[in-house]
Amino acid sequence: MPVSAAASAREILVRLHDVMASRNPAQSKLNQVVQIIGEAIGSEVCSIYLLREGVLELFATRGLAEEAVHVTKLALGEGLVGTIAEDVEVLNLDEAASHPDFAYKPETGEDRFHSFAGVPIIRRERAVGVLAVQHSEPRKYADVEIEALQTVAMVLSELIANAGLIDAAGAAGARPQMTASIRLSGQKLVEGMGSGFAVFHQPRIVIEHTVAEDIDAERRRVYAAFDKMREQIDRMAREAEFGVAGEHVEVIETYKMFAYDEGWARRINEAIDSGLTAEAAIERVQQRTRQRMRQIDDPLLADRMHDLEDLSNRLLRIVSGQMGTAAQMGLRQDTILIARNLGPAELLEYDRRRLKGVILEEGSLTAHVIIVARAMGLPVLGRVRDVRRQIADGDHLLLDVNEGSVLVRPTLAMEEAFDAKLSLRQKRRAAFAALRDVPPVTKDGHRITLMVNAGLRDDAAALDTTGADGIGLFRTEFQFLVSATLPQRERQQRLYRDVMEAAGDRPVVFRTIDIGGDKALPYLNVEAGDEENPAMGWRALRLALEREGLMKAQARALLEAGAGRTLHVMFPMVSEAWEFDEAKALFEAQRVWLNGRGRRLPLEIRYGAMLEVPALAEQLDLILPNVDFLSIGTNDLTQFLFAADRANPKLAERYDWLSPSILRFLRRVVEPAREAGVRVGVCGEMGGRPLEAMALIGLGFDRLSITPAAVGPVKAMIRSLDRAGIAQEMARLLAKPVRDMRGALGAWAATNGVELA
Fold it and tell me: For the chain, how big is the Rg over CA atoms in Å?
């Protein structure tokens, strides 16, 4: 009979427990296991394959030819069994032969069986075998049957490990000791430099006992562990100090929400009901989470799953009594922390005086831990492959996230070069900091407005540290991206008001929510879906105009937050003039609505548009009379203009911001805007690079919104620049472009003494 409830799974585990407790040889135990499982789920075939010497060997079967045992072997990735082991994924097929990876082994006599289901047998996060069932009638195995198979596979991993049947190479997980210097590359998550010794965040806890003797006792253990974990999270939330409040506080609150999630606790209890120990139940639910993570294309939802993985690790350490993480043992020297991934709470446990950087095997720009690390000023390098094989505990590391790399076991010459670069970086930062109160005025007396891009509450502090003129782009979607639920209007309003108060009398330009494309919000069911080009799909203003409730709530939050001030609102990804008109009308309707209810409102509202879709340049005559300002987003504009995905590494360096096409396009926009009396600026990365910023000023731009770190170098360039001279040079170059525009502009800057840091 098919498995119908956790009680049935528990009965299977009880029978397996008796088998495991017997003194029979391992082979005899495996032979009994396949009989028990096959009978329990009414399957004609049940087989166990184990990884031995790098291949999957048929070790026991009920239903296949007995002579195939220890004869049939499959490489990783070969056939259905090899695919399950390689991908560490479940397969459930009503017709096995229809799968593209199906491989027929005639000695097994399996040709008369149609349905197939297989689950990986996992040990230390890698597949060490496969448990498979087959049936002559085509049918999909029920979810409860697959759950039972996965639970049994977990128990099997203990049996085969104790019997010494696991492939030795896999079990050891060791690597030969290395002494040579190597350079590893990764993704820049939080820029900066740091030197320290490698410390691994957490040794993996191996579950040694999987079958529960007393289910009620196991349930009490897990309840106690939940209480202790929640107490720890609450304490960390109270004690977290960042200097000022910020978005990372909301991250911790979201993390707390996961810790108190009843659904998660219920799934662990259901696993205990099936007959697993508390540790095995947590690990069982964690395995499901990892499998879901591998199937999730949405990076934001995957990041939320990482938070749950972090909590699972914490709960597992508590219930097993193995609390010895690197944080709890304490850092004894300057440290570069290494982890597969980290949760925000785990990062907060470390001594910030000793922690100099973090290296992650995974990680992404939108992960909660990255937001917290940025608030801590801690450099983070992500997506570094084979870390555990390349780095040993205690190795000296030189982390340079600005270069996207880490030097492992550096030579003395490497250390000296790194120290020199770090010293130079610190001196340059000090020199740029000295320019904080000096205005960005060209040598011929032209004042350039330098503003910063922001997205978190803390970012407003950059106005004082850099001396910037204001925030030229506040990305309001960040609040939505780091939240597990839709931020309510009052919460949005509080953020906007705090940012404006921190800015004082300096302007803050709020860009309305830009979601969709690569910025999906699972709780809104806003996804790229089947779009082949999500960056050019249903996103930003297109989506916001469709979801009026979302935009109305944001409009009211901005209008009430800006009471008594001048409010600057900018709409993203405007493609045609009517889209701007419609968005402005929506805001104005909310202003009238609030005014009718006696609410305090902004003294003035200035409306602007992002020009990042080239089509809008053909409607400047229609939009310029209605906007107060334009801001050119050079990041999206470049990929749209060249039909080049900026996330594609092959195209990332191919199309230059200083190409004649880009520069001529920008001139087409800035000249009519200036004639219409409309201020136009640049708020993309292009404006944050001194050479590119010099070219923009030569085209007539006098308003740049850039990253805080770029303010000093760009200001130094401006103060060494003759605006009239670069304007003449730009006119000459664009009239008759040379192939290497970058080289030509660099040569002009060198000849004319322009400082390009």
Answer: 30
Q: How far apart are CA 583 and CA 621, in angstroms?
A: 18
**Distance (Å, whole) CA 368 – CA 342:** 9
**Dihedral angle of Cα 650, 654, 657, 661, to the nearest 10 degrees:** -130
Tell me if 326 sits within 8 A of 199, measured CB to CB. Answer: yes
Nearest to 271 by CA among 6, 539, 615, 641: 6
Q: Which residues of 48-61 are buried (b: 16+ CB within 10 A; e: fewer)?
A: bbbbbeebbbbbbb
Catalytic residue among 114, 248, 368, 568: 368
Q: Per-residue pLDDT tens for 44-76? A: 999 999 988 888 999 999 999 999 999 999 998
What's the pLDDT tens digit per position in 678-737?
999 999 778 988 999 999 999 999 999 988 878 888 999 999 999 999 999 999 999 999
Q: Is 368 a catalytic residue?
A: yes
C-alpha 312/C-alpha 221 separation (Å) is: 15
Nearest Cα to Cα of residue 571 among 534, 542, 603? 542
Catalytic site residue from 46, 201, 306, 683: 683
DSSP code of residue 64? S
**Would you call 568 a catalytic residue per the annotation?**
no
- Residue pair 584/572 in contact (Cβ under 8 Å)? The answer is no
Read off the pTM.
Answer: 0.58
Evaluate the CA torsion angle 707, 708, 712, 715 in order and state its sign: positive
Please say whether the beta carbons of 300 and 521 come within 8 A. Answer: yes
Produce one character per residue of 705-729: b if its CB has 16 or more CB atoms within 10 Å, e if not: bbbbbbbbbbbbbbbbbbbebbeeb
> What is the spatial distance between Cα 540 and Cα 521, in angstroms, rounded to a whole number?
12
End-to-end CA distance of the chain: 74
